[in-house]
Amino acid sequence: MENPAAPVLAAWAAPSLLGVAFSGGADSTVLLHAAARQWPGRVHALHVHHGLQEAADGFEAHCMGVCERLGVPLHVGRIDARHAVGESPEDAARRARYRTLARLATDQGIGDIALAQHADDQVETLLIALSRGAGLDGLAGMPREMTRHGVRFHRPLLDLHAHALRAWIAASGTPCIEDPSNSDLRYTRNRIRHQVLPALAAALPQFRETFARSARNAARASGLLTELAAADLTTTGAPPALTALRDLPRERQANLLRHWLRTAHAAVPSEAQLAQLLDQIDACRTRGHRIHLKVADGHVLREGPVLRWYNAAPSSSP
Ligand SMILES: Nc1ncnc2c1ncn2[C@@H]1O[C@H](COP(=O)(O)OP(=O)(O)OP(=O)(O)O)[C@@H](O)[C@H]1O
């Protein structure tokens, strides 16, 4: 049986040096085997050791064994995936993982990393976004390519179904790690994987492809909204001036404010906070009108003609 990742990689003009994010799990095992075969001498495996997880030492030892057999250099980075207050442990671990993968790659002079997420992972991501009431950028799902921490991340397996990858692992008898936390139904992603995807497969056999198409449509629309926000921001200035903001229709104000808060301050307002802020902007027609609202983990304040964001309220309010 052919490795299902092989034809995908064969069609990919991969960079001269490629890091493969290798957890030891089934999916990245399939990817690493295919990549090592396709580009001998050009592939490095990158493994993140999750310091707090009991089984992490065993995972690392497994990865070392696999890489030795494949003749692929392995680089290991440690993270302590403690999460901040208000942040989900899964999100914190993911963020720390990307940071560590990028550092491992950069240390080796590698500018590109392949991740092993596949079509089922994309559907799970979309359903998680829906379950959180995400906007268009969340519904765009995982991009095929993105740059983070100065490194390009690729997801070459995004069109492959999980069962094709698993079938190859089983048929070839290739050893891989079964992370026990993957069956822990306290995690939303696992409940979606084990309870929702089977029901979707029975009711809507093409769901992976149609959901992926919706994600692509959302990504395009989200890109246009970002462009519009950036163009509007050049009119209002940054931080945005209140009078110029008010000249825009309410939805464009909302689009601009979301963009400004996210790109300049990494702050994501809730729907209610944004609605309140827009009402305040509309009502702010006199010199003395104060705006002081909690937004994300900070505050938006009126300072004379402009709005400003502080991640803690300034000591003396204007
Ligand atoms: N500990 C890790 N070290 C290196 N890369 C990782 C690690 N965990 C995940 N990744 C990368 O991120 C991708 C997505 O992570 P996810 O948690 O969905 O995968 P996984 O279930 O742990 O493992 P796999 O995808 O290998 O079966 C993986 O396919 C892999 O490429």
TrEMBL record:
Q: Which part of the chain is the tRNA(Ile)-lysidine synthase substrate-binding domain?
A: 242-295
Residues annotated to bind ATP: 23-28
User: Is tRNA processing found in the keyword set?
Assistant: yes
Per UniProt, residues of the tRNA(Ile)-lysidine/2-thiocytidine synthase N-terminal domain are 19-195
Tell me which EC number(s) this protein carries: 6.3.4.19
Going by the record, the broad EC class of this enzyme is ligase
Where does the UniProt annotation locate this protein? Cytoplasm
**Reactions that this protein is recorded to catalyse:** cytidine(34) in tRNA(Ile2) + L-lysine + ATP = lysidine(34) in tRNA(Ile2) + AMP + diphosphate + H(+)
> Which InterPro entries does this chain map to?
Rossmann-like_a/b/a_fold (IPR014729), TilS/TtcA_N (IPR011063), tRNA_Ile_lys_synt (IPR012094), tRNA_Ile_lys_synt_N (IPR012795), tRNA_Ile_lys_synt_subst-bd (IPR015262)
Query: A single Gene Ontology molecular function, please?
Result: tRNA(Ile)-lysidine synthase activity
Q: What is its main location?
A: cytoplasm
Keywords assigned:
ATP-binding, Cytoplasm, Ligase, Nucleotide-binding, tRNA processing
Q: Check the record and name the Gene3D superfamilies matching this protein.
A: 1.20.59.20, HUPs
Quote the record's domain comment: The N-terminal region contains the highly conserved SGGXDS motif, predicted to be a P-loop motif involved in ATP binding.
Family note: Belongs to the tRNA(Ile)-lysidine synthase family.
What function is annotated for this protein? Ligates lysine onto the cytidine present at position 34 of the AUA codon-specific tRNA(Ile) that contains the anticodon CAU, in an ATP-dependent manner. Cytidine is converted to lysidine, thus changing the amino acid specificity of the tRNA from methionine to isoleucine.
Instruction: Kindly give the NCBIfam families that the UniProt entry links to this protein.
Output: lysidine_TilS_N (TIGR02432)
Q: What is this protein called?
A: tRNA(Ile)-lysidine synthase
Q: Which organism is it from?
A: Variovorax ginsengisoli
